[in-house]
Design brief:
Oligomer: heterodimer
Largest sheet of chain A: 3 strands, antiparallel
Distance between the termini of chain A: 45 Å
Strand content of chain A: 5-15%
Largest interface: A-B, 48 and 42 residues
Largest sheet of chain B: 5 strands, mixed
Number of strands of chain B: 7
CATH class of chain A: Mainly Alpha
Number of domains of chain B: 1
Strand order of the largest sheet of chain B: 1-2-5-4-3
Structural class of chain B: alpha/beta
Number of helices of chain A: 16
CATH architecture of chain B: 2-Layer Sandwich
Radius of gyration of chain A: 22 Å
Strand content of chain B: 25-35%
Strand order of the largest sheet of chain A: 1-2-3
Structural class of chain A: mainly alpha
Number of helices of chain B: 5
Order of helices and strands of chain B: EEHEEEEHEHHH
Chain lengths: 390, 171
């Protein structure tokens, strides 16, 4: 080889994705790999960036680093055996995925759920949502350079995890829902801990507001950054806080009511600025809404069974047919498409994950931003990579 | 006439299956239908492949921010050469869903700008979610058509979508 080499980057073209991405690059730009081990990508997301100085010219997320093929696993096991998988698709809001799976099968087979079980589902799913938003809050501020808030968030999260451990037996990857109810009933200790938590949180949220939300540096980093207009959100199928931060009050709990959510009085927070700050504010408001739902559910908890006495156990055959069931997860609309051929094993299961659609719009809104703003935008989407890769 | 169902004609109670209208279109009509749905502010929930004895099916699930219900658009493809026009020009969010469906079912979406594998490192042959021939079930079992297929009279959206699709005879 002659020196200097005709192409100094010979042998450094990267893998297939980098080569395909580099095809459209200008001569004077830099191709940068962000991830899959970058701390701000929360897991194993890789983003290919074409940089002009500090500015992002093009961005393309590369997925698949934690792909486990849950959809294939579903086709190899009995219906009830799929619950542990649902705890691992989105580890931060596992109970919403539990509900999506339980709800889809209950809808297909026309199973009834006792009122008490519905209330327990609402209580633990909303506590799980609080937990998810608290972790997002801490981790997002960590992305933006504030190290302390995540310590506060984890203090609160520990309390929620202790409570949920009482009734689910796990601290993170819950799989406590069953067809026709939930695995365990809640007891007086859970109720008293829950009431103490509900009493504690308003003060904590007030402190978070004073310490963080009003902070001039935070507002400077987030306001006017990562604007997602409604048309973009629609074309990419964005849902959840990302959509509600763009001024659309779409919440599956209201739009396609499931469970007993219609019995509770709560607000669906909507902010109209379409930027990262709006998405931040939506999640902070949702913390309060979820706590209010939990308080109402604890007060109105009916007596009865936590699972229907005739609920199917073990291997069991639902009728043939297809069904689509959606729930509102912490990140948006969780959908389960289920096709059954009437045997003990599902014929086809499709999991619609909200982060998947929410991340797909990053390629468009990341264009032309500063690299540090791209980090702020990625964080504001509240990504959970195992949910995207499934 | 495209085969079409609507909630008004469902024999089963409405909403039990999680959808309000299911429309079966030819692959060549999928872009027209998607365009019309976008004009009416529907958003794409997901694109789902399904392996049946009659061939490969692609299901597009659409939902709406303000209207209740869900529209399912189904396309049946030949098993030997599964090709379907891409709708990423209309719904850019469909791009990843289509790449995923290509990974798992080997369905080619023609006209897509990026066809690199999304979730798998490389193309697998056979595609991982394809069934063995003896496992496949006929579509009548998943979609019990005998009960509820019929003309979609009275359902305005279904009628509108039906009118933009070509007639059965013209190819």
């Amino acid at each position: 080889m002659s020196w200097p080499a005709a192409d100094p980057c010979q042998g450094l073209e990267g893998d297939l994705y980098a080569r395909v991405f580099a095809e459209g690059a200008r001569d004077d730009t830099l191709i940068l790999n962000m991830g899959p081990q970058h701390p701000s990508t929360h897991g194993v997301l890789r983003v290919l960036l074409e940089m002009d100085g500090e500015y992002v010219m093009r961005a393309e997320p590369v997925l698949g680093y934690i792909h486990r093929m849950h959809e294939h696993m579903a086709q190899n096991r009995a219906y009830v055996q799929f619950f542990p998988n649902m705890g691992r698709v989105d580890y931060l809001h596992a109970l919403a995925w539990n509900w999506a799976w339980a709800g889809a099968v209950e809808k297909l087979a026309g199973l009834e759920v006792p009122r008490r079980a519905e209330y327990i589902r609402v209580i633990c799913t909303e506590l799980n949502r609080v937990n998810s938003h608290l972790l997002w809050w801490g981790a997002y501020l960590l992305d933006l350079g504030a190290v302390t808030p995540i310590m506060y968030a984890f203090e609160d999260r520990e309390l929620v995890m202790d409570m949920l451990q009482l009734i689910t037996g796990s601290r993170l990857t819950y799989s406590s829902f069953r067809f026709g109810g939930v695995l365990t009933d809640i007891d007086t200790e859970f109720v008293s801990r829950c009431r103490a938590f509900l009493k504690r949180m308003p003060e904590r949220l007030e402190m978070y507001r004073e310490l963080v939300t009003g902070n001039a540096i935070l507002r400077g980093r987030l306001e006017g950054v990562g604007v997602i207009d409604q048309m973009t959100a629609r074309r990419y199928g964005a849902t959840g806080p990302v959509l509600r931060g763009s001024g659309v009050g779409y919440d599956v709990r209201r739009a396609e009511p499931y469970g007993l959510y219609h019995e509770f009085d709560y607000a669906v927070p909507v902010h109209h600025d379409c930027d990262c700050m709006a998405r931040y504010m939506v999640r902070m408001d949702e913390l309060e809404a979820s706590l209010s739902i939990v308080a109402q559910a604890i007060d109105g908890l009916p007596e009865g069974h936590c699972i229907h006495p005739d609920a199917p156990r073990g291997k069991w055959r639902p009728p043939a047919g297809e069904v689509y069931f959606a729930v509102e997860g912490a990140r948006g609309k969780i959908g389960v498409y289920l096709a059954s051929d009437g045997t003990e094993i599902p014929y086809r299961v499709k999991l619609r994950s909200p982060s998947f659609s929410n991340l797909s719009l990053f390629a468009e809104i990341g264009q032309g931003t500063l690299l540090s703003d791209a980090v702020a935008i990625l964080g504001s989407l509240d990504l959970v990579i195992p949910e995207i890769d499934r | 006439m495209p085969e079409l169902t609507s909630r008004l004609l469902l024999a089963m109670p409405t909403g039990d299956s999680g959808r309000d209208a299911a429309l079966h279109v030819k692959p060549r009509d999928i872009r027209l239908v998607a365009e019309r749905l976008l004009c009416q502010d529907w958003f794409l929930e997901d694109v789902c492949g399904l392996d049946l004895a009659d061939g490969l099916a692609v299901l597009y699930h659409f939902a709406h921010w303000t209207r209740p219900g869900r529209v399912v658009v189904r396309v049946m493809l030949e098993r030997d050469k599964p090709e379907c026009p891409s709708i990423e020009g209309i719904y850019p969010g469909a791009s990843w869903h289509e790449r995923e469906t290509c990974d798992f079912f080997g369905i080619e979406f023609t006209g897509a700008a990026n066809t690199t594998p999304l979730l798998l490192a490389e193309r697998l042959d056979p595609a991982p979610l394809l069934k063995r021939p003896e496992q496949r079930i006929p579509r009548g079992r998943v979609w019990p058509q005998g009960e509820w297929v019929g003309p979609a009279g009275g359902h305005s959206l279904a009628e509108e979508l039906m009118s933009i699709c070509g007639e059965e005879g013209e190819q």
